[in-house]
Each structure stands twice: as structure tokens, then as C-alpha cells.
Specification:
Layout (H helix, E strand, L loop, with lengths): L9 H10 L12 E12 L10 E12 L4 E12 L5 E4 L2 E13 L3 E11 L3 H5 L2 E15 L2 E14 L11 E15 L2 E14 L7 E12 L4 E14 L18 E9 L1
Antiparallel strand pairs: 1-2, 1-13, 2-3, 3-4, 3-5, 5-6, 6-7, 7-8, 8-9, 9-10, 10-11, 11-12, 12-13
């Protein structure tokens, strides 16, 4: 399921989390809340093509408001794959804490932070003997001319049982990435564009390629609890670590792009 080396949860979970940002600022008076999403993803290839990728995915997040600025959260998920290795699989779970505002600036700007730990529930993490991973993130957000703007640098450190090659695969130790997004609300509808770029290093300090995922999304709030979204995302390499040259930058390819339809229930 993971399409890049960003170590950020894969394109499909990225699509779900990004499309859910349309209503992230809705205030909930209760201390306990959360959301559950189901989303279907596929690329542009015919299902009979060997390059076809299709899956039915789900994710669930529980949030607990600790104080005015601090919240704890637990996220888990899974998917059913219809190509290659078919079947039902879990993704990694995440347990974290976030602070909504470290400080504010201007009229609408604020800086937040989060720290989360990975619970290795996915098949891939178990095969790689991942004990956990810690990810520290900052977020800078604001609003101008009706547009929501944000940028979030993140650093992740993996902790594997072994630091050598496992099952023929060289393991990743460090991951750095930056997520930037812009969104605009039109009544109950929300349009957004996001891009995540990053790279990683192995335990032997060998740097991977610089990769990216870009996404466009349109979401609609049917009720206070139910929303839906349609999105298209594309990924690629923008710097080849081995050759030191530009990679296969492609803003959009209708065949290899991932198309996702999401339904989210918030509580």
C-alpha cells in the first residue's frame, strides 16, 4: 500500500486525512470525539491491467481533549486489496498527543505541534521487526483572503529490532517530510490542494530519493456528522539520490494517479 518512501502512511491514508481537513476547525464541546472513514481507491488503469491498483480502505480516529490546548488521539485502519496480494490487511496504528497552539501570530496565524508513536500492526512493519516509530511534527497555519493555508514539517525516527537488512530489504531509520496545503470553503463544500515531499535515510546513512505526493480534493458536508470527498493524487520522484539528477516529476498522469472516494462520520 505504501507508494513512496516518505514513511507517512501511504497515499490512501494520506488522501483520507487530507480530505478530512475541511472541517477540522469545527468545535466540539465534548471531551471525547473522533471520526470513522471508509474510502475506495483505484488508479486509472483497467482492472485487467497488471498495473491496476484497487482497494477498499477504512480508518478510525478517537480524540480526547486533555485541556484547552492539548489533545490525545489514537488512529487505526486497514484495507482490502483487490490486486497483487489480495486479502484484508491492517495498517499501522498511531498513538499521539498534540498541542493546538504553541503561539499565535498576526490575526489568524498559529503554530501547533504533535508527537506520535507508531504501533506496528501492519504486515510490513511486523516483517521488518519494527518496534515503534516516533514522529515529531510542527504545523504553521493561517487564513488570508478566505483561503486556509498550512505548512507542516515532520521528522520520524524508526526503531527496528535489527538495524541490518531484513528479508532482503534495507531498513529506513530517519524520515523527513513537509506537508503544505491550501483550502477554500464554499458553504458546505470545501476545495483543497495538498503536497507532501520528503526523503529518508537508512541505518547506514544512505539517503533515499526525494519523493512527493500531490492531491486535489473536493468535499461536502451533508450533515454535522456526515461528509464525503472525492480526490485525485499523484506521486513521483523529484530527485534521484543515486544519480544526483531530477527524477520523474509528473504533475498529473491520469493512468497512474490515485482516485479516491471517501465517506466520513464524525462524532
Amino acid at each position: 500500500m505504501q507508494k513512496t518512501q516518505l514513511g507517512c502512511g501511504g497515499i490512501f491514508l494520506l488522501a483520507a486525512s487530507m480530505s478530512a481537513t475541511a472541517y477540522a476547525d469545527t468545535e466540539d464541546p465534548s471531551a471525547l470525539g473522533g471520526k470513522a472513514s471508509i474510502f475506495y481507491s483505484q488508479n486509472g488503469y483497467n482492472k485487467d491491467d497488471y498495473r491496476s491498483v484497487r482497494s477498499l480502505n477504512w480508518s478510525a480516529t478517537a480524540n480526547y481533549k486533555i485541556s484547552e490546548n492539548y489533545s490525545g488521539y489514537l488512529t487505526t485502519g486497514g484495507y482490502r486489496a483487490y490486486e497483487d496480494k489480495t486479502g484484508d490487511f491492517f495498517t499501522d496504528s498511531v498513538l499521539g498527543v498534540s498541542r493546538s497552539s504553541l503561539f499565535s501570530f498576526g490575526e489568524t496565524g498559529k503554530v501547533g505541534a504533535s508527537l506520535q508513536f507508531t504501533i506496528p500492526t501492519s504486515e510490513t512493519s511486523k516483517k521488518e521487526d519494527l518496534n515503534t516509530a516516533a514522529r515529531l511534527g510542527l504545523s504553521v497555519s493561517g487564513k488570508t483572503a478566505g483561503f486556509d493555508l498550512s505548512i507542516a514539517p515532520r521528522y520520524r525516527k524508526n526503531f527496528h529490532e535489527y538495524k541490518t537488512t531484513v528479508n532482503g530489504k534495507v531498513l529506513t531509520e530517519h524520515v523527513v517530510s513537509v506537508v503544505s496545503s491550501v483550502g477554500y470553503g464554499l458553504g458546505d463544500a470545501y476545495l483543497s490542494g495538498s503536497i507532501i515531499g520528503g526523503t529518508s535515510w537508512t541505518y547506514s546513512s544512505v539517503r533515499r530519493d526525494w519523493t512527493y505526493v500531490g492531491q486535489l480534493s473536493a468535499s461536502y458536508k451533508f450533515t454535522d456528522s456526515l461528509s464525503g470527498a472525492l480526490s485525485a493524487s499523484n506521486s513521483g520522484v523529484y530527485f534521484d539520490a543515486e544519480q544526483g539528477t531530477l527524477g520523474n516529476i509528473d504533475l498529473f498522469d491520469e493512468k497512474s494517479a490515485t482516485y479516491t472516494a471517501t465517506l466520513t462520520y464524525s462524532f
